Amino acid sequence: MKTMSAKDAKNSFGLLLDQARAEPVQVEKHGRPVVVVMSVEAFEKLSSARAKGRQVSERQRPEEG
């Protein structure tokens, strides 16, 4: 994963977008990671996988009552 400072992300926003389309980019402020910027496609894939994981775990729960 690439890393970029918040200052560089602000000053080179177009570059940040280009890089995030290829792979997630971690943005740091004062040397600490604060956010990850990723493409819409990567976000949708992650969201879909997470939703599928939730469905599987809900089916595995024992019945209550």
UniProtKB/TrEMBL annotation:
Superkingdom classification of source: Bacteria
Pfam families: PhdYeFM_antitox (PF02604)
NCBIfam families named in the record: phd_fam (TIGR01552)
Known role: Antitoxin component of a type II toxin-antitoxin (TA) system.
Sequence similarity: Belongs to the phD/YefM antitoxin family.
Protein name per the record: Antitoxin
Source organism of the structure: Methylopila capsulata
Lineage of the organism: Bacteria, Pseudomonadati, Pseudomonadota, Alphaproteobacteria, Hyphomicrobiales
